[in-house]
Amino acid sequence: MWRPFLLSAVVLMLPAARPDDSAATYPRIAMLWEPAEGAGDRLEAWARCGVSIVGPGALDLRWVRTPYRDLAVTIEPASVEGARARLADVHARNPRAVVCVEVNFFEARENAYPPDSPWWQRDASGNKVRFWRGCYNLDTGNPEYVDHVAARAEAVVKALDGRAGLFLDNLRFDDRAKAGWTRLLDEIRRRCGEVPILVNAGWASDDLDWIAPRVNGLLYEDAIAHTRDGDAEAFYARVQAQALKCRSPRIGVVEKFGPPGDGELMARELERTLVYTDLHYVYAESTDGHRTRWPAAWSAPLGKARTPAVVPAPGKLARRDFEGGTVLWLPSTAPAALVLPLDPPMTPVGSTEALPEVRIAPGTGWILLVTR
């Protein structure tokens, strides 16, 4: 009979400063696992982002060896000092950066737990349910398993002095899974306090009010391409409303998948994210590591928002002003293109020429910077 092999350790956790949402500067960029090409080494890349998702190994944080790799609930003490130093380096460059360390919950590699563990999700024939490429689902409704994952999350948070956030992948929505997710998040809060928590909602963007108040943000993994009604403007209104229900600091992320070099697609969703939401944004060219490259627009010095996120209105021009510029978006439902005078003239991101006016076609936008 299999029995969980649990390890424990006491690591003091110091209080950590939390970024103030009101001080956020834009664009708010996210990085998921792989540092963006052109963003520098991994520490510099994380420092350039408002939120990054990393595995423990990216910080060189190591679990104590156990018979099966995810049984451990103790971090190797020799790895703690170096991991804290790397995180401190990131925060020295950008005190607002939130680095979220992934703790597996919904799925795991085949060697993560014993083959006969009751924690695996099984089909009617008793076989483990495959998730993807060597990964299998776990029973997120099993209370013993939920408490085990909460202990692993606590070990990560304490090892990093409470100065990193947590990332939990692959939210699921059946009643048993919801009960398990609720128990897990409540238990993490009990053990770890107000550590930032980011949860991957995947393609879902509907019916998330039950979880939003328990977390600091939701990752919408190309959900814009998988809405039930195909209404992109309604999607952005929905995710902004959900973000406002999340805890502070708010670290939600809009992710868009697309082919390499499609600057038009990347810019379109960046513009909509900026004008309609306060969320972070990332354009991923690959689902394997969510690889991306850093375009010039992600470094646009927009600064703090001077006006709130716009509530989308069918066919109506959306304009949001920032300390360093303005973002415009005209929905594809607009009846015709618009010409907007700019007084004083403004400079499009990536350009050096100040324009006295811009023409905006339906389904397009602009990121305009104050001319200096």
Architecture of the largest domain, CATH level 2?
Alpha-Beta Barrel
- Overall, the morphology is globular
Query: Roughly what is the average pLDDT, rounded to an integer?
Result: 93
Number of strands: 16
Q: What topology, given as strand order, has the largest sheet?
A: 1-2-3-7-8-9-10-11
CATH class of the largest domain: Alpha Beta
What is the ordering of alpha helices and beta strands?
A: EHEHEEEEHEHEEHEHEEEEEE
Structural class: alpha/beta
Task: Kindly identify the CATH topology of the largest domain.
Answer: TIM Barrel
CATH superfamily of the largest domain: Glycosidases
Q: Give the low-pLDDT segments.
A: 1-17
Number of domains: 2
- Number of continuous helical runs: 6
Helix content: 10-25%
- Quote the distance from N terminus to C terminus: 71 Å
Overall radius of gyration = 22 Å
Model description:
- The protein is of the alpha/beta class.
- It folds into two domains: 21-105 and 140-299, Alpha-Beta Barrel (TIM Barrel); 302-372, Immunoglobulin-like, CATH 2.60.40.
- Helices cover 23% and strands 22% of the residues.
- It has an eight-stranded parallel sheet, with helices on one face. Strands 12-13-16-14-15 form a five-stranded antiparallel sheet, with helices on one face. A three-stranded antiparallel sheet has the order 4-6-5, with no helix packed on it.
- Strand 7, helix 4 (175-192) and strand 8 form a beta-alpha-beta unit.
- The chain is globular.
- The termini are far apart.
